[in-house]
């Protein structure tokens, strides 16, 4: 039940948003599919940026260790903020592409 | 872009699979080492690897505290006559290994049964430094205490420098519980460890 709660909660508010969007804001239900596609593109772009950040970040950390007296931990890449920043990068990229 | 959409769809499916099913728990169990202590096997020393260090106030982090307590528990069960606490160096404040050693003394572990090693920043450095520390005492057989995700790599790294290694028996148990955040955190640990394993293999550390 605990784990299903989050899914039920977001499913309920999503349904509420669709109803509000259609009835109060005059949004087209037909364009919901396009919105879903846009969201998937955003997620995909965020994944690309996340992997890019890891692929660039790891050699930089190892190079700093090897070439300087400074020690950087690989666990710097284990920060949730990297996911948030990658998502922001994906969002900006998608908006830029669609503008 | 259809490729981005496909990637996004796959990512979302994997996210839901990881967060809302025991898939990650099973994966972690499959990766855990199976060479744990059994029967009347014993080790010559318990080595508690560094984990998270200390806060700015000199307090052990949760992960470090768990490792320290596990080492103390194994000592009190008679697994080995010596506990080695490893940890990273600290600027100014009490370092992790010393803080753990202090905790062990407060829990009744005699000073003569405690060693602290504060000179390591990576698992590889821990293996090398602790090998130098223990070979002088004729110790070759150790039980490693570390987080479950990192234990397989740590075991191989310590074996590479010449130790016979046993795994902490508390790891490798199947736990299907935990909420979405716990599972995603475990997934992150598994991902980081997978990258680390590749690096260690390429670097010849095991």
Describe the protein:
- Helix content of chain A is 78%, strand content 0%.
- Chain A is built from three helices and no strands.
- The N and C termini of chain A lie far apart (42 Å).
- The mean pLDDT of chain A is 90.
- Chain B has 206 residues and is α/β, with parallel strands linked by helices.
- Chain B is 49% helix and 10% strand.
- The mean pLDDT of chain B is 88.
- Classes of the chains: A mainly alpha (99), B alpha/beta (206).
- Chains A and B meet through α1 and α2 of A and α1 and α7 of B.
Could you list some keywords that capture this structure?
heterodimer; A: 99 residues; mainly alpha; 3 helices; B: alpha/beta; 7 helices; 5 strands; globular
Spell out the blueprint of helices and strands.
The complex is a heterodimer of chains A (99) and B (206).
Chain A lengths: L1 H22 L8 H36 L12 H19 L1
Helix pairs in contact in A: 2-3
Chain B lengths: L1 H19 L2 H9 L13 E4 L13 H15 L6 E4 L9 H11 L7 E4 L5 H13 L5 E5 L5 H10 L3 E4 L12 H24 L3
Parallel strand pairs in B: 1-2, 1-4, 2-3, 4-5
Helix pairs in contact in B: 1-7, 3-4, 5-6
Can you tell me the residue ranges of chain B where pLDDT is under 50 for at least 5 consecutive residues? Answer: none
Name the pair of protein chains with the most residues at their interface, and give those residue counts: A-B, 25 and 20 residues
What is the quaternary state of this protein? Answer: heterodimer
Q: Provide mean pLDDT of chain A, rounded.
A: 90
Compressed to H and E, one letter per element, the order of chain B equals HHEHEHEHEHEH
The percent range for strand residues of chain B is: 5-15%
Sheet with the most strands of chain B? 5 strands, parallel
Cα Rg of chain B: 18 Å
Q: The biggest beta sheet of chain A, please? A: none
Ends distance of chain A: 42 Å
Physical arrangement of strands within the biggest beta sheet of chain B: 3-2-1-4-5
From the helix content, strand content and strand pairing of chain A, which structural class follows?
Answer: mainly alpha
């Amino acid at each position: 039940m605990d784990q299903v709660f989050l899914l039920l909660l977001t499913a309920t508010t999503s349904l509420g948003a669709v109803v509000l969007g259609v009835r109060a804001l005059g949004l087209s239900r037909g364009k919901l599919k396009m919105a879903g596609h846009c969201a998937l593109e955003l997620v995909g772009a965020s994944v690309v940026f996340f992997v890019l950040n890891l692929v660039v970040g790891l050699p930089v950390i190892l190079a700093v260790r090897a070439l300087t007296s400074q020690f950087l931990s690989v666990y710097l890449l284990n920060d949730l903020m990297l996911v948030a920043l990658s998502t922001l990068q994906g969002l900006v990229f998608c908006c830029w592409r669609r503008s | 872009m259809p490729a981005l959409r496909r990637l996004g769809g796959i990512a979302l499916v994997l996210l839901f699979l990881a967060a809302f099913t025991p898939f990650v728990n099973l994966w972690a169990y499959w990766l855990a080492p199976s060479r744990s202590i059994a029967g009347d096997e014993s080790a010559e020393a318990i080595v508690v690897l560094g984990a998270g260090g200390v806060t700015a106030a000199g307090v052990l982090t949760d992960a470090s505290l768990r490792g320290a307590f596990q080492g103390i528990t194994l000592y009190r069960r008679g697994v080995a006559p010596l506990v080695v606490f490893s940890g990273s160096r600290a600027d100014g404040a009490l370092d992790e290994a010393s803080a753990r050693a202090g905790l062990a003394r407060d829990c009744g572990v005699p000073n003569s049964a405690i060693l602290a090693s504060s000179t390591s920043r990576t698992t590889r450095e821990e293996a090398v430094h602790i090998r130098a520390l223990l070979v002088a005492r004729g110790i070759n057989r150790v039980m490693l205490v570390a987080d479950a995700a990192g234990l397989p790599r740590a075991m191989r790294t310590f074996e590479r420098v010449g130790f016979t290694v046993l795994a902490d028996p508390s790891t490798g148990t199947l736990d299907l519980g935990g909420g979405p955040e716990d599972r995603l955190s475990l997934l992150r640990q598994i991902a980081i460890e997978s990258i680390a394993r590749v690096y260690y293999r390429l670097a010849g550390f095991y």
